[in-house]
Amino acid sequence: MSSWAELHKAREEAAIKAEAISREGNTPQAMLLYVQAAELEHQALAAIDPLKIRTKAITAVSAVALWYKAAAYERAEQLAYSVLADPSIPAFARKDLRDLVQAIWTESSKQAANVGFLPGQVLVSVKGGEVITGGAPLDLIVEKVQTIQAMFYRTVEFIKDLPLRSRGPAPRDIQEACRPWLFQAAPGSYQFAVAIQEPEQLDFFSKQLGPELVAQQFFNILKATASSDPQQLEAVVPKAEYRKTFLKLSRNLAPTGKNFESIEFRTPAGGAPISLTTEARTVINQALKRSQPVTAESADATAEEHVGTLRAVDLEKDWLDVLIAGHALHVVGLEDAMDDIIGPMVNKTVKVSVVRTAKGVIRFRDIELDE
Amino acid sequence: MTDLRLTLDGLHERHPGLTPALGESYSEAACVCFSRHHQPPVTLTLSHGTTDELRVLNFSVPDARVQNAHANETDATETGAYGVSLAALEAVAGLVAVRRAETLTGADWYVATNGTDSEDLESCIRLEVSGMNAGTSADIRRRLREKVAQAGRGQSNLPAIAAVVGFKVLEVSISPMGDGA
């Protein structure tokens, strides 16, 4: 019988090959290699000295992950449960195994949903503050989901080189062709996966606009909005009007630090996740300030900031009302405010930046969530 | 006398966990990432604890074939960051890659002091690597803080080290995670 070290080494070689082939897009061949790697790691697990607790735990997680990557969900689940039943398994491995079990459930439920999903999902997790493992305030999650959906639609419009939509929802064909679904994802905080439903119009996603490209571009844009290097966003989004829109959507996602601490995005293919924190929010705000056009205000106009509840918005008539200590602040001149940016803020605490003119007119500059 | 160079060539000869092909792939990806912003040689800052060490790294300017092989920026940044992190950890702490283990979203490397018995993972340290193609120094430090804070909130009782590589700003920030941070 081969030793743990020999089996583990053989498994490593198969898994490395599988990963490389998977990146080249040869999924069937990669799957075969993942099955081979999983078999070897499973055998390695059986060959370990039971007193080597840490080695056993790492190998077990590795074997379950390989069965999962081989899409052998039943094998993965069975092995995960059998290892979790062992009281000697340390906490780090328990956490990893629970995450894997939940990922297995998500994949199994997608198969059972009888709805086709395209590759290129994005995993989202909201952490800290009021958020606990597997639970979060409903309004917080609904608002984040709306913004993520808005950003997906904007990404498709950007890739299709459509003019920036200043009013109204995304065109119906984009909404129907790119309908994001939410799936519960691996826990650790409150997590969900956004997957794109297969469109009825199958030719919507051409080679130039594949679902993986939408997810990857969404990911690239989000990453660039949170970078302190402005050139990153300029490289990913050359059009200034789209850059500003993406910055505002990204700011809507980033925490103020009051309700939650961070929101993290990753793709199932791995790679470094993007984490939006309060620091990222500051970076985004600085970028937005830089992009703000210099307007000629009269000498007696004053810049003000107010915090209150956004009670009403009428983009067509160009005004919004913010309720501050029982009094409504009527703000006009919304200019480039957009439905998908401002809509999720209604009935929430917001910080609105305005300019009060000498005649007492309050003109809009910027608005952001303050909770 | 301290060697002030950082070497990406022949990683597999010093890191028993790496195959020649994988070591070569890490090195190639790192060269592609550096060459996006710099000409060789470059001086890298390796930050660990309160110490900043400067190391000179000479890399090969990749030809078109190598560039094409690492055309996916995300994959190249991740792969290149593994190569640079392993070389940096070897330089500052004498740690080398011994094993790779699969995770839900990718794989972890396990490192240990050079010469450690590779018959098990009992004394190994998990290495978590993150690469940034074009971030600033502030972005690198922020990413490292986030990784360390994340581990601090978790239940991990496995020793771990985080390394963040910034290819544009020529920095590698290294920190222990969890209880050791």
Describe the structure in brief.
The complex is a heterodimer of chains A (371) and B (181). With 371 residues, chain A is an alpha+beta fold.
Overview of the molecule:
The complex is a heterodimer of chains A (371) and B (181). By secondary structure, chain A is an alpha+beta fold. Chain A has helices spanning 4-23, 27-46, 53-69, 73-84, 91-112, 138-159, 172-177, 211-225, 230-236, 240-253, 278-291, 339-342, and strands at 122-127, 180-184, 190-196, 262-267, 270-276, 302-314, 319-324, 327-332, 349-356, 362-369. Helix content of chain A is 47%, strand content 19%. A five-stranded antiparallel beta sheet of chain A has the order 2-3-1-4-5, sandwiched between helices. The radius of gyration of chain A is 24 Å and the shape is elongated. The mean pLDDT of chain A is 83. With 181 residues, chain B is an alpha/beta fold. Chain B has helices at residues 11-14, 20-35, 64-69, 73-93, 137-153; strands at 5-6, 42-48, 51-57, 95-102, 107-113, 125-132, 160-166, 171-177. Chain B is globular, with a radius of gyration of 15 Å. The two termini of chain B are 30 Å apart.
SSE topology:
The complex is a heterodimer of chains A (371) and B (181).
Chain A (H helix, E strand, L loop, with lengths): L3 H20 L3 H20 L6 H17 L3 H12 L6 H22 L9 E6 L10 H22 L12 H6 L2 E5 L5 E7 L14 H15 L4 H7 L3 H14 L8 E6 L2 E7 L1 H14 L10 E13 L4 E6 L2 E6 L6 H4 L6 E8 L5 E8 L2
Antiparallel strand pairs in A: 1-3, 1-4, 2-3, 4-5, 6-7, 6-9, 7-8, 9-10
Chain B lengths: L4 E2 L4 H4 L5 H16 L6 E7 L2 E7 L6 H6 L3 H21 L1 E8 L4 E7 L11 E8 L4 H17 L6 E7 L4 E7 L4
Parallel strand pairs in B: 1-3, 2-8, 6-7
Antiparallel strand pairs in B: 2-3, 4-5, 5-6, 7-8
Helix pairs in contact in B: 2-4
